[in-house]
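Quick one:
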Amino acid sequence: MSRKPTTRSKPKATSAPATEQEPVLTVRHYCQGIGDCHLLTFKTPEGKPFRILIDCGIHVSIKDGQALVGDIVTDLKDNTEGGHIDILVVTHEHWDHVSGFLTANDVFSTFTVGEVWMAWTENPADAEAVELDKFKGQALAALQGAGQRLEGMQDLNPYMGRVRDGLQAVLGFQFGATGQRVRLARDAAAKLCKKAPRYFEPGGPPTTIPQLPGLNIYVLGPPRDKAALRLEDQAGAMFPLARGGPLAQALTCGLKMNGENDASLIDELSPFEHNVGSSLSAVLSGDADDSKVIDYVREHYSEPIEHAAPQENPDQSWRRIDADWMGIAADLALQIDRGVNNTSLVLAFEFNDRVFLFPGDAQIGNWLSWSDLEWTVGQKTVTTNDLLARTVYLKVAHHCSQNATPQKQGLDLMTSPYLSAFIPTNRDDAKNVHWTKMPYEGILTALAAKTKGRVIRADDEWLKGSEVKPGFEWPSGSILAVRSKPRDQARVPGGLWVELDLA
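Output:
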């Protein structure tokens, strides 16, 4: 349940004088650390607000995260005429993008939502989406098993300790603090609208909204091409969908073989015949058939050295690699994490020849799939390169990680002198889950140069205070005005939101 509002006074939102130019779009970015929640407000010709909410979630590792999301959803309701959202966009099935729809459902259930938009990958009637979903389910089951096993093991070597920590971070995208599946949160979002969700994929004419003449919405991703969905950092690094992939099969089989005392279990992927050798657990307990093997293992890999030299480690267990076979969980975790990120619904909002790009957590496979897209609009053809060249505002993908926002087929194509950007990332929160390169310095440097410094981050120090002091003057580029609101600093320090008028 979300945190209920208290009777004490709320922090005041800070603001700056608006310019005479009318904004095309007002976007409020919530600053929860690792997570996305963005409220886009357009104006109809009659002057009425038309609101699009993109995601609402927070990573499970964030301290007091559920209470913070409760604050966010309460703020959303207070600033949307009692909770009216015209379009709710759910970009993809990760906890840090959808958790709020479950944990703050007591407040969200009082909202009115006109439509829910999702990617084709979430459509239960789509055969390819069902195939992808089976892969995710089987791979996640294997990762959960490995994570639980590693959590219960003592004295892991440094490598396997890092694998354990990495699994915790990745599984934090899939499960809540008490084990809720991300699917429950996604479905809670869908149920906020009485109508069934609309599912989108690239291709066809841009989407238009009758209340907003002049606005075209282009769907860039996720791709239909399986190779693009499976793409990692290089074209050849792919994972198959069938049965969770070979890594999931090997991990699942290994967990069974090492966790159940069942002689009938056979490791189909073992390089040896199943009747050759003895299990380590049987050898260590003395239950193996070969006494020579028992003696050898105890002498060299188990029992302390009786007369160890001063420089020797008497504990022989360091020689064993009991848990190292679970190291493949690291590769599987990266594959499923990047695969799900590549299913992000990517939307480009075009108005008055300017483009506002919201790519969710799209990573390299998703980005590369856009290169050949084109749309017919009236008498002209619009290409992806054209949209990127006219992009004046970017919600930076995947918390500004190294494997999102490519250089040559991303930032290099964003040539507008008006480009500005927002990064939904707190560096300290990222470090807490061992993402030491998030946000990635190379992308930060490129963005700073491209935007002439018009980059705002969720952890900017000025967001904690009462004055609006970003590192640039405005109006500048696509930014007409900046406003912000701090959190309840005594409970959860930081900024609650930053709001920009864009043109």
